[in-house]
Amino acid sequence: MAETKVCANCNTKNLAANNFCEQCGSKLSNVSPVEKGSKIPSAIKIAKDTLPTVQVVSTVIKSTPININLSSIWLPIFYGVLLLLTIYTRFDHLGSKPHHHDESMHAFYSYQLFKDGDYEYNPMMHGPFQFHGNALMYYLFGVSDATSRYLAATFGVLTVILAMLLGPFLGRIGTLLATTLIVFSPSFMYFDRFTREDAYMLGATFTMVVFMFRYYRSRQPMDLWLASLGFIIAFCTKESIFLTVAVIGTYLFIRLLPWIDVLVAGGITILGLLWAWQFDKTSPAYMPVFMLLLGTAFLYTMFQLFTRWQENLKNGKAENDLWEIVCGLGFEKISWGILAFIGWWIITLLILGILPHFGIAIPMPFSTLMIIIYFGLVFWFGLLWIKNIVPAVTGSIAICSIVFTLLFTTFFTVGASQPDFWSRLHGLFNALYMGAFGGLEYWWEQHDVHRGDQPWYYYLIQLPANELVSFLFSMIAIGYYWLMPALARVSAFFISDFKNGNFYKKWAAWNLFPIFIAYWYLGTLALFSWAGEKMPWLILHPLLPALLLTAYFVGEIIESNPLDYFGQTSRIAAIAIFGLLLSYSLHSAILLSFYHEANPVEPLVYVQSGPDCKEVERIVEQISYDETGGPNPTSPEGATDAERSYHDGIALTIEDKCSWPFAWTFRNFNRRNHPTAITAADNPIILTATESDAVSYPILSKAGYINRKYKMRVWWVPSWFKKGYPSSDINFSLFVDWFFSNFIPLNPTRPDMVDWNDIKNWVLYRQVWSDLGSYNMRMWVRPDLAQKYGFTEDSRSDVPSDYPQVIQAPTPAITSKNKKHSLNN
What is the DSSP string of 736-768? Predict the structure, then answer.
């Protein structure tokens, strides 16, 4: 029979994989399997049988932890309130904030897909899922600023619901805390209202992880199918899935393989990374040697996994619980099909990825053969799934293949514009290759570009600045669950009788669930800090495991029952600090998402389109509707072509540097062009960048156009130095001097650098200590219209009174997107 754990609190049987009782939420101990019908002696009976009467009551009290009873009545109410709060904070006033540069690109190209069916995967804008998902939202709810963010908000709600499913692993209190932390998180709340792929990526990744946990517990194929669906949606959303898989995959390798194999594979990988770090990247030997080392490490790991898998099958008994799951999947029953599928992808990589570098081109009809084989393999896995043959594996492969194929081929429409049948099939074949390898190739090449030019410690500043409660408690939890057991085991390795001491007995046991979460957190933090591009929205990736680890740790603190005065005081202090920081987190989240959503005093508001963009939109639409009655997609019945053109709205010229967000904002203005430079005063309203003033200003001012200057994008790059002082790059010596001058006053105070007062003013009042920056533009209006609508250069009463004054600062990289991307390309 399956192993079980019996709850000491309510005597309910639970699956052995559970950490907490499903009935009462009490933490389960690692007891031996319990046979059906056996009884667990109560704590009172044990005490009566083994101790003098006078000690019975005190023993029972000491052995029974405090149990906060979240009854079946109140728990659904708590979750219902959190769910309603999530829906409100994710969907309310979604259209009020001007679209960020990246948001406008995603919204616009999703609109192109919705309107014209025109989309082809471009790694620069990440995967196809967000464009198909946004197009679906347009179909269901219409096209607007708000609906362009519905998909992100929906995944924000999904992430909260997924947290509620972790009860058997986090416990009732831990699960409630995890849900609350995600709902109250400033980063999650803000980016769940943001048309970027990271909200979908985190929701899909969390789906994968949650149902992997549940499959570990249940062994039900449905859980593995849902985990696979989460994985493939994440894969079709963003290329950072490779980093996530690297973290989770290495953890599984460590659990499945002996340490000697882990050390060998890890050593070869480290050699490859050192080679990539130190060797000349322009050398012809750079990439071949790097790929050889990484490939060797990967093949060695796969060979060792295959060998141990065979040994476990041969022995008829798995060496641990993970190998029991692997061996129970039934790979051996469909091994030839899996090898054929892997072989197909290797041949595809060879044909489209490697041979072209040597000038070798494969005849186009060969693409047809490859496409036929691919669809045959996918159909075969689907047929096995329907026949219930190894359903967990075949169903997962079929789900991943079907979703991947439909999204990356845009439902088989990629290549439809090609002139002949063979070219269209080759277009489909190339789309499959690009989906699997193209994104990785592109972003690997971009690694050394360092878009954003952020330092390696960027997330170590962003996390405490925006998510202090999770950052602080997760760091303490890592020490508690990981470092202390490691210290105990290392000490026992070097000191022979250390195992007999109380320290070893208390700390030596590993608690694998929080260790996995900690590994996921630290591994993700390390890889995203290593990656060349560091942006505020990427904070979500290490933040999710940090939130889960915090919830598990604080949940254990709440359920603990320390007997000594120091332990009791520490418990109360920890709970009080957690509650205080959690309330501040909610305050920061509301302030960021509803009051400062376009205000650069928030570190997460990065090169954001400023409130001025809404003012530009209002003026253009007012003039357009008054002058033309449009844009109006529904022309009056019987209208001539000229009249229909009239209802396309006023003619606009938008310089290419101002295309984003205005290509999205004015998407319905069909009489719109995006020149790379202004050469004539051709349309009634013209938008230009101030950096082009040398060219555009003489032309338009000579034509009598009236201009008004606006802040198109705004930002704050926190500096080590205060306003009015020259800044320099930080180094270790300067950091030590600053820290021991302004924070631990061992040296004379440095008035030019940040101090406690600056930190306090930002935390409480969002007063920034370094300069704000902006990218500026001009709106030019034809003189007759300017006079008619009162458009002058000095009528700027619309500027919010609390909007921070800008002092020009160096321009950071706009986003992960290439600034040169143009509508004309």
Answer: HHHHHHHTS-SS---TTB--HHHHHHHHHH---
- Structure letter (DSSP) for residue 20: B
CA distances for 212 relative to 220, 222, 518, angstroms: 10, 11, 17
> pLDDT at position 67, please?
47
* Residue 37 three-state SS: coil
Q: Are 360 and 330 in contact (CB under 8 A)?
A: no
| Cα–Cα dist 234/140, whole Å | 23
743 φ/ψ angles, rounded to the nearest 5 degrees:
-120, -40
Cβ within 8 Å of residue 595, ≥6 positions away: none
Burial class (CB in 10 A: 0-12, 13-18, 19+), 372: exposed
Largest CA distance in the chain: 104
Q: How far is CA 114 from CA 107, 131, 132, 139, 148, in A?
A: 10, 9, 8, 7, 12
pLDDT of 194 reads 95
* Cβ–Cβ < 8 Å for 390, 223: no
Confidence of residue 295 (pLDDT cuts 50, 70, 90): confident
Distance CA 323, CA 339 (A): 21
Task: Return the SS3 of 628.
Answer: helix
Closest CA to 557 of 543, 545, 546, 573: 573
pLDDT higher at 480 or 495 = 480
The Cα-based distances of 236 to 101, 423, 440, 754, 790 in angstroms read 22, 24, 12, 42, 49
Tokens for 613, please give them: 């963009």
- Tell me how crowded residue 532 is: count the other CB atoms within 10 A of its CB: 16
Within 8 A by CB and 6+ apart from 177, the residues are: 170, 550, 551, 554, 555
Higher per-residue pLDDT: 41 or 597: 597
Q: Which two tokens stand for residue 71?
A: 């009854």
Number of H helices, E strands in the chain: 33, 8
Residue 68 has pLDDT above 80, yes or no: no
* Residue indicated by tokens 């009854």: 71
- Cα gap 761→768, rounded to integer Å: 8
**Location of structure tokens 């408690």:** 473
Long-range contacts at 537-540 (CB < 8 A, ≥ 24 apart): 537/191, 537/194, 537/196, 537/198, 537/604, 538/198, 538/240, 538/459, 539/187, 539/459, 539/462, 539/463, 539/466, 539/467, 539/604, 540/187, 540/188, 540/191, 540/198, 540/199, 540/201, 540/202
What span, in angstroms and rounded, lies between the C-alpha atoms of 636 and 643? 9
Tokens linked to 686: 């013209």
Tokens of 642: 């000229």
Token reading at 448: 């050394």
Containing 727, the helix (H) or strand (E) segment is none
Distance (Å, rounded) from C-alpha 364 to C-alpha 347? 15
Q: Which of 140, 91, 130 is nearest to 110 (CA)?
A: 130
Residue 63, pLDDT above cutoff 50:
no
Q: What is the DSSP string of 532-588?
A: S---GGGGHHHHHHHHHHHHHHHHHHHH----SHHHHHHHHHHHHHHHHHHHHHHHH
Helix, strand, or coil (residue 777): strand
Please tell me the number of Cα atoms within 13 Å of 691 on its side-chain side: 11
Rounded Cα–Cα distance for residues 260 and 227 (Å)? 30
